[in-house]
């Protein structure tokens, strides 16, 4: 069974299949419309799956796809490919010992258990990215999300993502920039961060100021990266701009579980 890395590509159902297009196998266009909407609803529900209800929501999505096949046809066999990828709807969690834990205090509110978005489904502690347009470093991406149990954010989701360039893969304190650092004129890339701050109010946008990050351990034998961070940020919306606010007591403890380190 392929894990929920399928989630991001399954939205093609909503883009590919619609009732305004003719299908060689299609029946009643009203039924096709209803079936397409049912798939969209089931997919949205599936995106909120956790380890307790994964099988039920997966099977509901699978049934909706099968109904879509019957109502709209499947000339390119695209729907069948998605059904096949869902397998028997058994959730497989690999590397259960991987560690991914971030803590932070955001504007006085303490978050003690933040993990990558969807961690209980993907079980991947870090990601690896590059910014070839800016510099030649590879980056470790660590993320802490306050509602990581679900894929879809809530109106109160807080999410911090930190990108750490290869030039900072060692114990030390580094500037934490508000965006990727270009290596023009000999400038050394430094870590940078992004923040999502939803608070069900008039200021839904958050943007970054600078801060600092301290890597207390970078261990390729035990394959872990640990440290602390702090920064300031502002919030904005139709009502204007507020802040700055402080992020304090930031900590991270993540397994270097990416294939990059194999």
Give short descriptive properties of this protein.
six-stranded antiparallel beta sheet; alpha+beta; globular; four-stranded antiparallel beta sheet; 262 residues; 10 strands; single chain
Name the overall outline: globular
Overall mean pLDDT score?
86
How big is the Rg?
Answer: 22 Å
What is the share of helical residues? 10-25%
Description of the molecule:
With 262 residues, the chain is an alpha+beta fold. The protein folds into 2 domains: 4-86; 100-261, no CATH class. Helices cover 23% and strands 34% of the residues. The chain has 6 helices and 10 strands. The protein has helices spanning 7-10, 12-16, 29-46, 54-72, 78-86, 119-122, and strands spanning 100-106, 109-114, 127-130, 138-145, 158-165, 172-176, 192-197, 205-219, 224-237, 240-255. The strands form 2 sheets. It has a 6-stranded antiparallel sheet with strand order 2-1-10-9-8-6, with no helix packed on it. Strands 3-4-5-7 form a 4-stranded antiparallel sheet, with no helix packed on it. Strand 1 and strand 2 (109-114) form a beta hairpin. Helix 3 runs antiparallel to helix 4 and helix 4 (54-72) runs antiparallel to helix 5. The longest helix has 19 residues, at 54-72. The chain is globular, with a radius of gyration of 22 Å. The protein starts with 6 loop residues before the first helix and ends in a 7-residue tail after the last strand. Mean pLDDT is 86; it is low at 1-27.
């Amino acid at each position: 069974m392929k894990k929920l890395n399928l989630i991001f590509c399954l939205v093609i159902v909503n883009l590919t299949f619609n009732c305004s297009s003719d299908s060689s196998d299609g029946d009643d266009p009203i039924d096709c419309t209803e079936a397409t909407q049912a798939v969209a609803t089931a997919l949205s529900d599936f995106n909120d799956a956790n380890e307790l209800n994964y099988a039920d929501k997966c099977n509901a999505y699978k049934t909706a796809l099968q109904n879509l096949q019957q109502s709209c046809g499947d000339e390119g066999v695209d729907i069948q490919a998605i059904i096949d990828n869902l397998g028997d709807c058994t959730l497989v969690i690999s590397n259960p010992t991987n560690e991914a834990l971030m803590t932070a205090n955001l504007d006085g509110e303490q978050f003690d258990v933040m993990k990558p978005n969807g961690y209980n489904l993907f079980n991947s502690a870090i990601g690896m990215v590059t910014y070839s347009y800016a510099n030649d470093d590879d980056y470790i991406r660590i993320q802490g999300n306050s509602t990581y149990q679900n894929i879809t954010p809530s109106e109160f989701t807080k999410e911090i993502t930190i990108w750490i360039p290869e030039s900072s893969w060692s114990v030390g304190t580094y500037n934490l920039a508000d965006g990727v650092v270009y290596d023009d004129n000999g400038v050394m890339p430094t870590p940078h961060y992004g923040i999502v701050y939803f608070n069900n109010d008039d200021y839904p946008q958050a943007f970054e100021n600078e801060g600092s990050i301290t890597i207390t351990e970078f261990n390729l034998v035990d394959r872990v990266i640990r440290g602390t961070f702090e920064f300031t940020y502002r919030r904005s919306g139709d009502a204007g701009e507020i802040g700055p606010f402080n992020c304090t007591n930031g900590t991270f403890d993540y397994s270097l579980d990416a294939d990059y380190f194999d």
